[in-house]
Design brief:
The protein is mostly helical and about 140 residues long. The protein has two helices and no strands. Helices cover about 80% and strands about 0% of the residues.
Length: about 140
């Protein structure tokens, strides 16, 4: 006795669509969470960087102010060199932050691309096996 597969096709198609939507949602949520973690990490790094820069600029400003007030030329030179050192540290911190930010953005872009790919996923049906059975009386 043969089974009419056409009777099951609409139910299988409905179930397949439900599963596809569920998988897309799960994948999308995971990648979205990962991208959000990277975004927050980037914001934390930015705040940390801005704090360092403020500190370096304040030390540079203080050294320059003390250099202007110094009477001794050697002391004035030493303070100007110190101010220059703080200026250079601030510039290096800016460059390091830009590099780190680029890496984090690239990683976040990768997750956004993975979200898009998971939502555009393809579906493939493959015949794996056949079951033959009979009822013995």
């Amino acid at each position: 006795m043969a089974i009419d597969a056409a009777r099951f096709t609409p139910h299988l198609d409905t179930r397949r669509a439900e599963l596809e939507k569920e998988v897309q949602g799960r994948n999308s949520r995971y990648y979205d969470q990962q991208e959000e973690l990277l975004y927050r990490n980037q914001q934390d790094r930015k705040a940390e960087h801005e704090g360092k820069i403020r500190e370096y600029r304040a030390k540079e400003k203080d050294a320059r102010k003390l250099a202007r007030q110094a009477d001794d030329p050697m002391e004035q030179l030493r303070l100007k060199k110190e101010a220059r050192k703080w200026e250079q540290r601030a510039e290096e911190a800016d460059e390091d932050f830009r590099d780190a930010r680029k890496k984090l953005r690239a990683e976040a872009d990768k997750y956004l691309e993975l979200i898009e790919q998971s939502l555009q996923g393809t579906q493939e049906t493959e015949h794996l096996f056949t079951i033959r059975w009979r009822i013995a009386t």
